[in-house]
Design goal:
Layout lengths: L11 H26 L2 H6 L1
């Protein structure tokens, strides 16, 4: 594994939930702002 040394600094039990949580928060923010700034996205969901 090319980036395996990161786990010498950050434990996987801490790093993986933080990473996955960051991905989830980013995804939710993108969807929220697309819903707020466009008219067609909300119409597609309805």
């Amino acid at each position: 594994m090319n980036q395996g040394r990161i786990w010498c600094v950050v434990k996987p039990t801490v790093g993986l939930p933080l990473f996955l949580g960051g991905v989830a928060v980013t995804s939710l923010l993108v969807h929220y702002f697309v819903l707020e700034k466009t008219s067609w996205f909300a119409a597609v969901w309805n």
